[in-house]
Structure formats: C-alpha cells, structure tokens
Design a protein that fits this description.
Bound molecules: flavin mononucleotide
Helix content: 25-40%
Shape: globular
Strand content: 15-25%
Distance between the termini: 48 Å
Order of helices and strands: HEHEHHEHEH
Structural class: alpha+beta
Number of helices: 6
Largest sheet: 4 strands, antiparallel
Length: 158
Amino acid sequence: MGVPDDVISEICRVALLAPSAMNAQPWRLIAVVREKREEVLKCLQHLGANKFASKASALVVVASDKSGGMMKVGELFKENEFVRNDLGILTAHLVLAAQAAGVGSCILGWRNEEKLREVLGLGKNVVIPEVVALGYPADGYPLREKKRKPQPDVFTLL
Ligand SMILES: Cc1cc2nc3c(=O)[nH]c(=O)nc-3n(C[C@H](O)[C@H](O)[C@H](O)COP(=O)(O)O)c2cc1C
C-alpha cells in the first residue's frame, strides 16, 4: 500500500519544525509522489544504485537556495557551515517523523544533483544534499541489524 498524500504532508510538516541557525529555515522540501517521479528516480539510480527506491511512495527532495537573504547572513559565519547543518537536522527530523508515523525511510545521498535541479526546474543556486525515500516497510521484512561502532570508541563521559 502506498503512503497517503496526507500522511506524507504531515511527516513533512513535523520535519519542518526542525530548528535552524538564526531560525533562518533555509530549506524547502519537495515530495515527489507522481509528477516527475520517473525522472527523479533516474537521478537517484545512475550506475545501478538505489534500485529499491522505485518502490518508495514518495521521494522527498531536501533543498536549499544559496541565494536567500538569510543565507547571506549565514555566510558571515560560514566556517560553521550552518546551512549544511540545518539541512542535516531537517533530514533527521524527517526520518524520525516518518518512523513515528509508521513509515520507513532511507536517506539517499547518491544522486545526480545537477540533473535533479534540471528536472525540478530549480536554479543553479539550489543545493540538494539528499533525497529521502518514504514507504511502508514490506510485510514480514524485518529491519536489518544495526551495525555501529562500539560505544567506547565514539562516546566519552567526563
Ligand atoms: C547522508 C547520507 C546519505 C546516504 N545515501 C544513501 C544512498 O544513496 N543509498 C542508500 O541505500 N543508503 C544511503 N544512506 C543510508 C546509510 O547507508 C544508512 O543510514 C547506514 O548504512 C545505516 O543504516 P541502518 O540505520 O539501517 O543501520 C545514506 C545515509 C546518509 C546519512
């Protein structure tokens, strides 16, 4: 079953509550469900990658316009890379909001960004760090085991 449009919209609404530096909200989400779906898929599947994305209900494009007013302010602090951080936080909110709604997700960083801009009619100033595939997990398909670095290698309590 496909994820209904209203559930996709609600997941995006919750994700867009994410915090951002100076509350600049330097982002835009484009949930590709029907229109341009095949063209967007092609941008994610070059060289045989991300085949599973064909089964996703929505491909949510995470984008930011580098020419926006607040982005200029952000440039003053660019060593902090606020915009990239903001988009990462937005993406994290998106996958967590999806999980809370019973919807599975996969972040797709393997993409042809230039072609995506072209397909979606976005200008050269728009960056698209990732696309998030959303869909209901298949019946009886268990979540794969989490393989993570041992906590002592990446965590210190002082
Ligand atoms: C920025 C980023 C880009 C990613 N790009 C892809 C991708 O293009 N294709 C894919 O299958 N998974 C992609 N992933 C998913 C990671 O491979 C996945 O989160 C990681 O292996 C941990 O998976 P797990 O939580 O199921 O253990 C990406 C994840 C991130 C955070």
